[in-house]
Amino acid sequence: MADTAVSGFAEGFAEGVPCWVDAQLSDVEAGKRFYGELFGWTFDEGEGPQAGRYAQAYSEGRAVAALAPKRDGRMPTVWNVYFATPDAYALARRIKHEGGQLVREPMPVGTAGTLALAADPEGAVFGLWQAGTHPGFGKRGEPDSFCWTEVYSRDKDLVDPFYESVFGYGGTDLADAGDDFRTWSPAGTAPGPDTAIGGRSLVAGKFPAEMPAHFLIYFNVTDCDAVAATARRLGGRLRAEPFDIPYGRMAVITDDQGAVFAVLQDPEP
């Protein structure tokens, strides 16, 4: 996360709620061109020691994401999701106690906040964010902004208790998916679709055996097919062509540098 002023950002987020996403890319300038045309994002390099390297993205003047340069070419090209917390150090201790690992111990990022990277017991990586001057999303759940995330796992008996203990989530298995898909709601809310902020999907049999556990983030769009066609024109690839689900129409896209994300069009009224 970059040090930045609060303009364009929303208020704070409850613990365990996705509050930010960023893409780790080899070429940030190329990323700006791809996502700028795909979603209409504009970019601000921010202020402070990371200026010129960590490019924050805006939609309608509100913060939606960021593009960051990979510090090491061996690092994966990937979209990361960050979960809000009022105390990154305490949450990091819970993660280790429940069988997770810390990829990066909590560290202050200027006055913006405190950052950490963790991995669940299957190795899926996610971020923690304790807000300072950077609360997180200024726009979400609207076109061209983040709307959902889910972790793809193979062992629900290992992964579900981890997240539900670490974040206090209430879980709900979807009736039409059995235990293959489970949604999570923040602590203190009634579990269910109206409060869900993310979920877990089982990948056994659906993906190659060598595919590691991972998070997939979704961006809301007004026209899934048009966005998919634009992504292909810009040099991206479609991992999953547009298809209908009970919650709208979606596609899974790999950008022109290899970062994977999904887009979701709301269902027709």
UniProtKB/TrEMBL annotation:
<dbReference type="InterPro" id="IPR004360">
    <property type="entry name" value="Glyas_Fos-R_dOase_dom"/>
</dbReference>
<dbReference type="InterPro" id="IPR029068">
    <property type="entry name" value="Glyas_Bleomycin-R_OHBP_Dase"/>
</dbReference>
<dbReference type="Pfam" id="PF00903">
    <property type="entry name" value="Glyoxalase"/>
</dbReference>
<feature type="domain" description="VOC">
    <location>
        <begin position="145"/>
        <end position="266"/>
    </location>
</feature>
<protein>
    <submittedName>
        <fullName>VOC family protein</fullName>
    </submittedName>
</protein>
<feature type="domain" description="VOC">
    <location>
        <begin position="17"/>
        <end position="131"/>
    </location>
</feature>
<dbReference type="InterPro" id="IPR052164">
    <property type="entry name" value="Anthracycline_SecMetBiosynth"/>
</dbReference>
<dbReference type="InterPro" id="IPR037523">
    <property type="entry name" value="VOC_core"/>
</dbReference>
